[in-house]
Amino acid sequence: MERPTLLINYKAYNNAYGKKSIEISKQIEHISQQYPDIEVILCVPAVSISDISKSVSIKVFAQHVDPVTSGAQTGHITAEMLAEAGAVGSLVNHSEMRIGFNDVAESVKQLSSFGLESVVCVDRNELVAPAAMLGATAILVEPPELIGSGISVSSARPEVVINSVAEIKKAGRGLLLVGAGITSLDDAKKSIELGADGVGLASAVMRARDPATKVKELLEGIRIGLT
Fold this sequence. Notes:
Layout: E1 5-9, H1 18-32, E2 39-44, H2 49-55, E3 59-62, H3 79-85, E4 89-92, H4 101-113, E5 117-122, H5 128-132, E6 138-141, H6 153-156, H7 158-171, E7 175-179, H8 185-193, E8 198-201, H9 203-206, H10 211-226
Parallel strand pairs: 1-2, 1-8, 2-3, 3-4, 4-5, 5-6, 6-7, 7-8
Helix pairs in contact: 1-10, 8-10
């Protein structure tokens, strides 16, 4: 991840798996080709990784990885499994899949050992630098009270973005993504103008009547924010 980024979390919506997920992913890929300077990442359910990664050339991430190695680990998802399935990275510590700090560190380590990227999610700017120092590819900061609210962090709490940008600079490594309530061109634009390297979101795309059109709007917001 070296470019401004739009990260789309498919979560477990009914279009996040099966034929619908492949169709949406192809549409998003088509739109993304109009914005070669912006990276688009699809965070998909584990059951969708193989099919989607074979269907598109843009990056496919897992939504979670367990801090364990291969072996007697019933029900766990290892970094090795993700690599074999075609993922190039994973979310870690999403607000809906919280793990302890030591487990975050181990998850990042396991992902790195298989050449996979990691986006560590945190809920406040004070955790940005500590998470970045673990070697994560990027940090995604999302105030929990704004997740799914339709009220963007860049508008309601711009200080979170500003302070998080300062924290990532302090760490001296990793990209800074922001999320929670990002739904529009203006939300994406303002996040970039405040210093973020990209935005993360889910429902704005996955619940949209036309997901591809919404993705185009958000990519346009990032592009304008960069100018």
